[in-house]
Amino acid sequence: MSHVPVGLKPLSRAQVLAVVRGGAPVEITPEARDAVAASRAHIEALAAAETPTYGVSTGFGALATKHIPLDRRAALQSSLIRSHAAGAGPEVEPEVVRGLMLLRLRTLASGHTGVRLSTVDTLAGMLNAGIVPVVHEYGSLGCSGDLAPLSAIALALTGEGQVRDGSGALRPAAEALYEAGLEPVQLAEKEGLALINGTDGMLGMLVMACADLAELFDIADLTAAMSVEALLGTDRVFAPELHALRPHPGQTLSAARMAAFLKDSEIVASHRGPDCNRVQDAYSLRCAPQVHGAARDSLTHAETVAERELASVIDNPIVLADGRVESNGNFHGAPLAYVLDFLAIPLADVASMAERRTDRMLDKARSHGLPPFLADDPGVDSGHMIAQYTQAAVVSELKRLAVPASVDSIPSSAMQEDHVSMGWSAARKLRKAVDGLRTVLAIELLTAARALDLRAPLRPGPASAGVIALLRESTGGPGPDRHLAPEIAAAEELIRSGAVLAHLESTVDGRNR
């Protein structure tokens, strides 16, 4: 596996995913090594000076006016990390921790933080060795950096605290560092602050959410098309000339994909003629491109914010190219918090529309000839009745998760930090929402597949038929009631693994993003 270069150039979203999810190793570039050494020289000069410099020879936050004697400045940095590693709650996921490590490493390697090269190398070594510090759920207000989460990583860097090793086992940090051939860092001036004053947790989770949602919005186009087909809906509303009249890019793309998925469907063709007495489909069918498209365009905006943040250097104080060390407010997480909150809204709406389509397939009065709840023997069998209950429960939760975190602010640090972003909280709830959307779409996929099977002998289009065949490798077709929870889980895993999208890419034109 090739190394991802970490240095003066911004990381791409693909590079971030390669490291945090794919386990790709990192390598500090030669240019970055020179820049780190140069900025460290500036910090060492300031550390020896009588004039106080924030983060070098003063306290932090509300204690910024406290001058620290020369012989206590190294202890200042260690005390900072120990006191700030004050997280609580369950462990966050390893990929989130790796995101924190990678993105903080990228800032440290920028030559604008004043840390020593040995500190940069040790953090890179931890990442490459698969050492994952234990980071807890609560402790970041999304301002002054993701303080408690990043402090847990900095603590492990110094050989304190607990980590997960490459096998996932819980170990003392000192043991894991020793086995990886890494020397614990003895923090010097400015280094403790530089290790924790960033938006890295928020950003890492945004990058991962963007990747997940890009795939799930593609899946939503597929499940919507399958539902249109199963409910004897029309494909004429997806014609390009209609969507050209409202040229939102996402809408145009979703309409084109749904039209492609419905191509050559015997079921759609069976009711195209003059005998069809249906004038218009319900909104959950007819307006799917408009809703999915708006979600896609919202995602595009979030991806733009993520890319800008990946090009940013977040620390306070910052070491400028001319050697000046200046305080700033770039650690404030508002730009990330807003889009993390924003994405939860269209996500919930896409899920809500999918649930409405599922319910329509189960309702004898609205399904145009399908048996009640798609049951084999209605009354004896309940079919997919309770699968829709599960969908509805998840959608209700997604609506709650769409309530923004960023409108809240609790002042901290004796009112020095009197406005915070709550971006970490926005990111955490978005991750939960992404999982919920996957569940909702998996249930629509299962239901639409069963409904299409019940339309036999008419055959669905190649896109639907291929996905149904893939689904049937792990789930059963129509028949008497059986345990549905494993089938929902299997459908979720097909979506999560990328198998459904890979099949579509190989068989259907219309996938292009």
From TrEMBL:
PROSITE patterns, per database record: PAL_HISTIDASE
Enzyme class: lyase
Pfam families: Lyase_aromatic
EC number in record: 4.3.1.3
Subcellular location, record wording: Cytoplasm
Pathway in which this enzyme or protein is active: Amino-acid degradation; L-histidine degradation into L-glutamate; N-formimidoyl-L-glutamate from L-histidine: step 1/3
Matching Gene3D superfamilies: Fumarase/aspartase (Central domain) (1.20.200.10), Fumarase/aspartase (N-terminal domain) (1.10.275.10)
InterPro entries xref list: Aromatic_Lyase (IPR001106), Fumarase/histidase_N (IPR024083), HutH (IPR005921), L-Aspartase-like (IPR008948), Phe/His_NH3-lyase_AS (IPR022313)
SUPFAM superfamilies per the UniProt record, alphabetical: L-aspartase-like (SSF48557)
Superkingdom per UniProt: Bacteria
Reaction equations catalysed: L-histidine = trans-urocanate + NH4(+)
Keywords annotated in UniProt: Histidine metabolism, Lyase
GO molecular function annotations of the record: histidine ammonia-lyase activity
Transmembrane segments: none
NCBIfam families in UniProt: hutH (TIGR01225), PRK09367.1 (NF006871)
Xref: PANTHER family: HISTIDINE AMMONIA-LYASE (PTHR10362)
Entry similarity comment: Belongs to the PAL/histidase family.
Protein name: Histidine ammonia-lyase
Species, as recorded: Allokutzneria oryzae
